[in-house]
Amino acid sequence: MRIVVIGAAGNVGSRVVAEALRRGHQVTALTADDVDATDTEEVARLIAGHDAGVGATRPTPGNEQSAPGVTRSLLDAHAAAGVRFLMVGGAGSLRVPDAPDRLVADDPRWVPAEIADLARTGAEQLAVCREHGGADWTYVTPSALMEPGLRTGDYAVGHDQLLVDDAGRSYVSMEDMAVAVVDEIEQPAHRRTRFTVASA
């Protein structure tokens, strides 16, 4: 398959590139130096002819308000190019298991105050995806804690609620997050919806 990754220099994007190459896919890796993710026409031109695109962009601190607009531009570009789109989002958009009326972003047990604004962008990105009428999208959400780690290839899948293990931990390695993204590209199971993953 031909896969394009936008945000390929980031923690998740670089691992998605590596995972896709490991499986023999053709990968186009685009960084901020290659394309402005808000330039819908340019993105559409660069992704045309691919089977799937991955958005692994992340706003810089203090620029959190840009995330919904970037997501909308990427959705528009993928719709125009007829390319399936997977957006890697944030756990802040998930519901808290013991308080399902509360977002993870609003719960200090899971999100420190200093990154709460960034965490809330996940809910805004997801809303943009759900409101978009033209794109074939999937929103992929990590656990509360996502760090560099082992590629086990073994992970749990959820939907709108934060996945927490028996020890009270919500964790996924960046490597297993990349595995989940490429698995979804190869075997689509969550079209026009969101899913979340946790290392098993």
TrEMBL record:
GO MF annotation: an example: oxidoreductase activity, acting on the CH-NH group of donors, NAD or NADP as acceptor
Domain NAD(P)-binding: 34-188
Domain of life where this protein originates: Bacteria
One Pfam short name: NAD_binding_10
InterPro entries the UniProt entry points to: NAD(P)-bd_dom (IPR016040), NAD(P)-bd_dom_sf (IPR036291), Polyketide_Oxido-like (IPR051606)
Protein name (Swiss-Prot/TrEMBL): NAD(P)-binding domain-containing protein
